[in-house]
Amino acid sequence: MILKGNKGFTLIEMLIVMLVITVLLLIMIPNVLKHNTVINNKGCSALVKMDTYSTPYLAMILQLE
What global pTM score does this model have? Predict the structure, then answer.
């Protein structure tokens, strides 16, 4: 079915939308990567703390068995 009288987006309008999306992605991606690094570092330090606290407890359990 061919729709007559309905106007779609022009090529220029589509290019402008693509440009805006690209600029937003270029602004967001470095921030997301920076926060990802911070989150990974905090997660690693939490694992190290958890390991140092749990190691004596695990040794005690293994001695009881």
Answer: 0.46
The tens digit of pLDDT for each residue in 24-62 reads 988 888 877 777 777 777 777 776 676 676 666 666 666
User: 8-45 burial by CB neighbour count: b if 16+ within 10 A, else e?
Assistant: eeeeeeeeeeeeeeeeeeeeeeeeeeeeeeeeeeeeee
Q: Phi first, then psi: what are they for 29, rounded to 5°?
A: -60, -45
DSSP annotation string for 1-65: -PPPS-----HHHHHHHHHHHHHHHHHHHHHHHHHHHHHHHHHHHHHHHHHHHHHHHHHHHHHH-
Residue corresponding to tokens 């270029």: 26
From the centroid of its chain, how far is CA 12?
Answer: 32
